Amino acid sequence: MLVRLGYVAMSMSLQNASPSQTMTHSQFIKIPDREAAIRKLERIAKSNLKNCLRLLRHNVANDIEFFRLTSKIIPLANHEDVKDWNYIRPLAEELSEVKEFLLAHPKMRVDFHPDHFVVLNGEDTDVLKSSLKTLGMHRKLLMGMGIPPEHRCVLHVGGVYNDKEKALEQFIHNWGLIPESIQRLIMLENDDTSFHVEDVLYLCEKLGIPLVFDIHHHLANHENKDWTLYWERILNTWKHSALPPKIHISSPRSEKEFKAHAEFIEPSLLLDFFHSIKGSVEQVDCMIEAKRKDEALFKLVHDLEKEASIEWVNKAAFTL
DNA sequence: CGTTGTCAAGTAACA
DNA sequence: TGTTACTTGACAACG
């Protein structure tokens, strides 16, 4: 079984390489010349994309083939005040540079985790509409980068609204209202407070959505702590995907702040997990969610180096 | 130059 | 009913 390690959004080792510089709405409206303000948004977005490419180069240099892009590349992209702004056209050059790079490195897996304002299971149609708009932006970015958009956006189920059963059924209802091109983007992840892996499996199996298993969330929120009870079903949700299953791993910051992410990853948790699913699948991509980003990945690899049960295929992937 | 408060958006917990 | 955390960085304002 091959395990590739990845990390999230930004690097602690590259200087001045933020892919998520921004302009807030209040800054935007303070600029009297609206055209100038929009050009400034465009300059920021271009710089963010250039830095995404720098991050991808950094990843290749370190054998890292799995990476989550930030969802903050284009500031205010879905804001009401700039709804006439075609934010993709001015980014054509930067997007095609990323596209060329990814074409030259076809093993690189890149995806998004749109933030928690994207909610698909509410009764409020305005919330659904703005969520679809935000997902549309993600899709346009993926298309611009030449990435097949299938299964590139991981989301949580959404809100409980005091009735979890009803909230799950509302997800199914809303799913029918979502264009197929957007449906295909989506993966669903178990969360740490509301929808545990059994809930998410119910939706994923019914609707044909791949399930991203988050170990840390599972430890915080479960019916049954033993994930091996669910693992075969989780794998099955990936049966029709062109991509290998992916999981998330993070360590609790402390006993008291259990749900918060720690700076680094506890290697024993990762080893336990992969030993318990050993042989069940050819490849799993494992997203490291730690405050220290790529440094946490490097430290994890270092910590695992003396581990005899695994064999390194490069600086960021191993087999067992 | 270092520190503090704010940011477009949703939900839930808590006062 | 209103405030804050979530996860969290970026940036402006302030000292």
UniProtKB/TrEMBL annotation:
Pfam families noted in UniProt: UvdE
GO molecular function per UniProt: endonuclease activity
Keywords: DNA damage, DNA excision, DNA repair, Endonuclease, Hydrolase, Nuclease
Superkingdom of origin: Bacteria
InterPro entries cross-referenced by the UniProt entry: UvdE, Xyl_isomerase-like_sf
NCBIfam families: uvde (TIGR00629)
Protein name: UV DNA damage repair endonuclease UvsE
Origin organism lineage: Bacteria, Bacillati, Bacillota, Bacilli, Bacillales
Gene responsible for this protein: uvsE_2
